[in-house]
Amino acid sequence: MNSPNQPPYNLQGFLWKKGALVLAKTWKRRWFFLSNNRLYYALDKEQEEAINYILLIPGTVVVPDSQTSYNGKGKLSFEIRCSYTHRIYHLEAESAEDYSYWVENLIRVVELISANRKTSIPPTPIPNQIVISKNYPVIDLLLLEAKSDAFEGELFCAVYCGSQKFKTWTSKKTLNRLVWNMPCTFSETEDILFRIFHKTGGIDVKLVEEKLQLSQLPNNEVLDIILPFDTKSTKHKGSLHVILHKTRAYSPTALLSQRGIPNPYLPVRLDTGDIILFNNTHALSYGTKLFTWSQWDHVAMVVRNQKNRLKLLEATADGVCYFSFDRRMSFLFTKAKIAVRFLQVKRTPRMQQKLWEFVAQVRGRPFKQDLLQMVKAAEGIRNKEDLSSLFCSQLVAAAYQSYGVLSCEKPSNQYVPKDWASRKNASLKFVMDATLHRKIIFCVRRDERQQKIAEVSEGTTSSEVVWTPTDPPQNIYSAIPLINTRPSIEVPRILQNRLRSERRSHQTL
Fold it and tell me: CA dihedral in degrees (208, 211, 212, 216; nearest 10)?
């Protein structure tokens, strides 16, 4: 039994939580636990990291006997009204005993915090907290070029290593050479299979195939390999030029160490500021695509945390979340088409510290549900800056501004997902010579053999830099033009009228 004058430090258990989206408010069972003035919630008791948390500060109110209920009876439900984010959390216990346990103890915690603003609940260890991964072996591979007199038309190369697959962009032969200069990193150490395809009439025709046995190659050596095509046909004789390094994930001497940290889902290294775009297929995603004229309805940002691990900063229906990258990708990779854009900038410890402080400030804030504000952003109508709640593209823009790579002249809520997908970065005013590279697209396929194939489909105007193993460049991608068609979309009449009035008021300013 807890003392009447002390908060219940070990407060934990299952509760039903109502979702935040207006159009799809579903109830989900979550594991809640109290730590350092924050009520965390996770998928289950064994989850490595919490999804998000509710910040308990002076002004927070616990309301018993909520009228909103999961089972319709309302006797076991209650609310937490957060004064900081102005969000109401609807929760429901699974029994009368659990209801009394949560309501009574939460009220006592809030009363203690309100009575003494300097009082802080001692932090308790988060269950199954993630530790730094071992320095596991990886394969850094730079795919340079292919040579053959017989190559004709548009061709690309696909690289297979275990379950991970990487696909280059489509290129045309120049002087009997196909030049790619594309890096990839495989977290699996099986033999590598190279295949060169010819695109004709929407069909990929395999021309040559060659296998590289990694067991026969030395470790921790940068190898410049020219792989001859071993084929019975004299028509496709030629060679493939690659640079390979059998190394470890966190090795500072790895061939592609400047590119970031590898992961088990995408065969590329990632670092702070890299953008992850999503093309979802659920019903709500089509509304975003409709009003922003883009196939990309969601965007998130990669962050390297203090433990040198990859995290994903993302605004979801649960608010601003700070996910484990690997765990989040294990869920999203089978749900959506994903694209990656690399941020090229000279990163400094001061920039990183400012970003970590920004993440600590906004984490847990609610998801912005003002559809009109997103439509105004898509139409170029200026919005007033407001970080009390955030949608996905606003969160990324605000993070970029705190990171010091994006100009603050344009409010963060003026950005939409398509701005982060544009090949020319026309809507992004970078500073510090920063830029975003072309998209690498990972298509979700039901066929396991074709899953996780990465394809570069769009480019920027960034110049191509010659690669040497001893001098890893910041920019190792060349530009590829792409015709971007804008679909014809009809905006509802009610929103049209509101947009016209907003335009008139904006023009008079």
Answer: -140
Say if residues 299 and 393 touch (Cβ distance below 8 Å).
yes
Q: What is the pLDDT of residue 304?
A: 93
Output the pTM of the full model.
Answer: 0.66
Say if residues 180 and 480 touch (Cβ distance below 8 Å): no
Low pLDDT (below 70) residues in the chain: 1-9, 20-25, 48, 66-74, 83-86, 116-134, 150-151, 172-173, 175, 230-236, 283, 291, 369-383, 443-509
Which letter, b or e, does each residue of 149-178 get, where b requires 16 or more Cβ atoms within 10 Å of its Cβ? eebeeebbbbbbbebbbbbbbbbebeeeeb
- Interacting residues of 404 by C-beta distance below 8 A, sequence separation 6+: 351, 354, 431, 432
Alpha-carbon distances, residue 36 vs 169, 248, 365 (angstroms): 48, 36, 17
Residue 308: partners with Cβ closer than 8 Å, 6 or more residues away = 132, 250, 261
Amino acid at 213: Q
CA distance 437 to 460: 6
Name the E strands within 24-75.
27-35, 38-42, 52-55, 61-63
pLDDT at 209: 87
55 touches 330 (CB < 8 A): no
Nearest to residue 345, comparing CAs of 445, 398, 269, 274? Answer: 274
- Give the SS3 label for residue 216: helix
Q: Which helix (H) or strand (E) holds 313?
A: strand 310-316
pLDDT at residue 369, as a whole number: 66
* DSSP-derived secondary structure letter, 150: S
On whether the CB atoms of residues 254 and 261 are closer than 8 A, the answer is: no
Write phi, then psi, for 204 (nearest 5 degrees). Answer: -95, 120
Q: What is the DSSP letter of 488?
A: P
CA 142 vs. chain centroid, Å, equals 24
DSSP letter (8 states) at residue 489: -
Alpha-carbon 121 to chain mean position: 32
Cβ-based neighbours of 46, under 8 Å, separated by 6 or more:
127, 128
Q: What are the strands of the beta sheet with 38-42, ordered from one edge?
A: 52-55, 38-42, 27-35, 12-18, 87-92, 77-82, 61-63
Distance CA 272, CA 343 (A): 8
Nearest to 378 by CA among 458, 494, 495: 495
- Report how far residue 109's alpha carbon sits from residue 113's, in angstroms, rounded to the nearest whole number: 6
Nearest Cα neighbor of 275 from 338, 328, 341, 325 is 341
The amino acid sitting at 242 is: V
Only one residue has tokens 């065969």, namely 267
Nearest by Cα to 324 from 304, 349, 342, 344: 304
> In this predicted model, what pLDDT tens digit does every residue of 106-131 receive, in sequence order?
988 888 877 765 444 444 433 333 33
